[in-house]
Amino acid sequence: MHPTLLHIPKEVAGIPLFGFGLLLWLWLIGAGGWLVRLVRRQGWTSETRSFIPLLVLVAAILGLLIPAISDAEGLPIRSYGTMVLLGVVVGLAIAVRRAKNIGLDAEYIFSLSFWMILPGIVGARSFYVWEYWENFLRPSRESPQFWPTLGAMLNVAQGGLVVYGALLGAMVGLAGFWWKYRPMFQNNGVSLLGLGDLVAPSLMFGLALGRVGCFLNGCCFGGLCDQPWAVRFPQGSLPYESQVHRGLMYGFSLIEHPKKEPLVISVRPDSPAQKAGLVPGDRLLQVNGQPVDSSGQAQAEIAAAFYRQTPLRLQTTSGKKITLPLAPIRQRSLPVHPAQLYASLNALVIGLFLLAYSPFCRWPGQLFASMLALYAVTRFLLEIIRTDEPGVWPLGLSISQNISIVILLAVAVFWFVQTRRYRPANSLRLESSTPAN
Question: Measured by CB atoms within 10 angstroms of the end CB, which terminus of the chain is less buried, N or C?
């Protein structure tokens, strides 16, 4: 785990870099010159004007966002954001190479990347903020303030993107780009579904690198593991804090969801908790003498006892009164599955499969649908290993597992319709196939 690679200082030779500083002025000068060059080359067209929102967005990031997410040492360059950026670059390179096979210029793919990346980030971050809204309230949940909370919400480089949110946002951007330039795509025989086939492998290769960023950041972690490849995260990391709050350092585990009742869902064999008589299904009534009505309240009291290094006193609704001895403060977490690396390897394998399978596809959208189906199945299985996302109604599955089921059903319907509509072809092009008579 290495969440921060380096810091960019706030000033150079006494000149501020961020906010209304040197970088913003250099960007305004460079963006203005590039815009003038575009106008001279192609006129004040809709395509020229379409770049203005992006230029304004970058200026807003330099002038407003970066100062909000900087710390005392300057602007932190996070490993998570760096790996996401590297994933974008690799995915873009693959898409450019595949686009040449169907006669599309690289210029259109670069434009498409902007149309997909920005909505993808917005979708991924919005989904994460919605799911963990209370974690973004600054300076505290009891008295949140607008600007600190907004800064926490926009601090994407520190982690917190949901793949399904990114996929939804990217698909909206893809559809918007194809609609805007549909005459050009139609002249090249490329349908909207064919454009989805073009970018499908790129999405998986980008995800493979992004998950490495998750590993370096410590998010998206797995459950306890006794295999030789298990990993331990340092004190202060998300896996470590989760184990402290849920009671794993004492040998038991509370339900993850902070608003649900404080139920014990597992007890490790031969642990202090088991020896004291705690069993799965016990519902906590008090922790350290404090009444607890939710798992979140119980977790806070458990963490307080752990860091104060006092015995943990539990009382259950069945009348059990249990005192657990001190749990030593470890330098690293209990061993867990490297779920992030599992997910990275999974995305890499899917990406390679899509490249190999592409020549055998018979109708537009088949490659994109294959990507969705494979990822939905494997993501459902990977969620069993992960413990960072609580289960939700109605089946107690995680949000990602529920979405995986919906996507798989939608792909099944789409696959059935398309296989009946198109006759087999001897070769694949990303453009529309001929409907069967």
Answer: C
